[in-house]
Design a protein that fits this description.
Blueprint: H1 17-21, H2 29-42, H3 49-71, H4 77-85, H5 100-105, H6 109-122, H7 127-139, H8 149-160, H9 168-179, H10 199-216, H11 219-230, H12 233-236, H13 238-252, H14 262-273, H15 282-301, H16 306-315, H17 324-339, H18 341-354, H19 356-367, H20 371-376, H21 383-395, H22 402-416, H23 420-429, H24 441-446, H25 449-462
């Protein structure tokens, strides 16, 4: 097992999970894990993310097979491996309905599907029925031209109304949304907002659904969902209702007409309800206030301005999970900054004046990339040479007019790859560098977040020629 290796070209790797891992199908759980750990030592996620994901999927798939084999004494191996296991998530159908799953394993898939559909329509069915219907459509979509796999997850969740927060239907729905977020804004999903739906499920669904609606600028969808939920959620749990209102406001704030529209309506209702329910909601409220301040600044800048067109795509998803879309937008933003550093400085100066909260969030965003650690890591280098280089620059560069000086300073920092923060620290230690009214030049550089932001964005772009920034 320890000698098992894979081709350098991951596209040629075996599709069968057991062959990929180099183990037999009757492998023990312990040896399966040993095979997995052996491979991921060679394919670490930070260096080989694609290969790591393929190995992880194969491991999870093999685990699924073992669960299935424990449930059925003699499963039909080819059907399960080729149609159910390969590329499926960790959740699998565990308990069969009245012989229908066994019938499908024996090759009578269409008959089994029709039987399960009839069972789901005639009698209250358990979770297993909907799981089996889902999996059959996942691997053979042509079975039903009128439905998709996600329809059976929604049907099961609305029919069962389970309070189980770890139900397999819910987990699969979350996985479907993660794989294809746009599914969350489909009309059929609104069925999950009917009275009686567990609130934890409502919060799960709205979290993804409203984020996608925001990205698509479908503001009416969010307000329509709130209208549906308003009918019953406040009576069931008023605190949960406040949380939903806060979540809706955090998304509606990004509408260009938010200053006098949907967002303000949500905020007014939240303020009224907070008279009785303010405890435990401080973090959510801070988020809404922060977004409100950012949006007020963007409106002040003007949504048609170049500044807003540059920073809005990043800011609008700055509080989201750092998924592929987030990484793409951040990289695009860095490249825009790096393409014209001096123009970016002028743009960010305007942002600082008219939308300081927006600039603050942009700087926080850089904090996620080790901003401070990166800037000050240069102290571990040859500081004698760095200090001498900075002093030479100051000797031959007029600095009394700071706005003119900083334009030359950004050129110097990028050319020498010496950060503005380190430059400011050196200048701060030198006597005589004071601007008007005894303002320290060094401290002014250290306080110049726009300058530091441009430098860091340019540095990140320079070290990311192949889109390999780890976000």
């Amino acid at each position: 097992m320890s000698d098992h290796s894979l081709s350098p070209d991951s596209s040629t790797w075996p599709k069968d999970p057991f062959q990929l891992l180099g183990v037999a199908r009757d492998v023990s759980e312990r040896d399966l894990r040993k095979a997995y750990l052996h491979l991921i030592r060679s394919y670490k996620p930070e260096h080989a993310p694609l290969e790591f994901r393929l190995i992880r999927q194969a491991y999870e798939t093999a685990q699924n097979y073992q669960k299935f084999a424990q449930t059925w004494d003699e499963p039909t191996e080819d059907l399960f491996i080729n149609k159910v296991i390969v590329s499926t998530p960790t959740v699998s159908p565990l308990a069969p309905g009245p012989d229908f799953w066994e019938q499908a394993c024996q090759g009578q898939i269409e008959e089994a599907y029709r039987g399960l559909v009839d069972l789901a329509s005639r009698t209250p069915s358990g979770e297993e029925t909907y799981l089996q219907l889902y999996w059959l459509l996942v691997h053979l979509p042509k079975l039903d031209s009128a439905r998709g796999p996600i329809d059976w997850l929604i049907r099961g969740l609305t029919a069962i109304k389970s309070d189980d927060t770890k139900g397999r239907l819910r987990e699969l729905l979350n996985r479907e949304f993660s794989a294809s977020p746009k599914q969350a804004i489909a009309e059929r999903v609104s069925a999950l907002f009917a009275p009686g739906t567990p609130l934890v499920l409502v919060q799960d669904v709205t979290r993804t659904r409203w984020k996608v609606a925001r990205a698509q600028k479908q503001w009416e969808l969010i307000t329509a969902d709130i209208a549906n939920l308003r009918v019953w959620v406040p009576e069931v749990d008023e605190v949960a209702w406040v949380r939903l209102l806060i979540a809706s406001a955090a998304n509606l704030a990004w509408a260009e007409d938010s200053a006098g529209g949907r967002f303000q309506n949500a905020v007014r209702e939240i303020e009224q309800l907070l008279i009785h329910h303010h405890r435990g909601l401080a973090e959510e409220l801070d988020l809404v206030e922060y977004i409100q301040a950012v949006m007020a600044g963007l409106i002040q800048l003007g949504f048609r301005s170049d500044a807003v067109s540059t920073i809005y795509p990043v800011l609008s998803i700055a509080w989201d999970d750092h998924g592929p879309e987030y990484r793409t937008r951040v990289r695009t933003y860095f490249r825009q900054i790096a393409s014209d550093p001096k123009g970016a400085l002028r743009m960010l100066d305007r942002v600082r004046t008219e939308a300081p909260a927006a600039l603050g969030r942009l700087c926080e965003l850089l904090g996620g990339f080790g901003f401070e650690q990166f800037e000050f890591s240069q102290l571990a280098l040859d500081t004698t040479h760095i200090i001498a280089t900075i002093k030479e620059f100051l000797m031959f560069t007029p600095w009394s007019d700071y706005l003119s000086f900083r334009v030359r300073l950004i050129d110097f920092c990028l050319r020498e790859r010496i950060s503005p923060s380190l430059t400011g620290m050196v200048v701060e230690q030198e006597p005589g560098y004071e601007l008007a009214e005894n303002i320290s030049l060094g401290q002014t550089i250290l306080d110049d977040w726009a300058l530091r932001h441009v430098y860091r964005a340019c540095e990140l772009d320079a070290v990311d020629p192949s889109n390999e920034i780890a976000i």
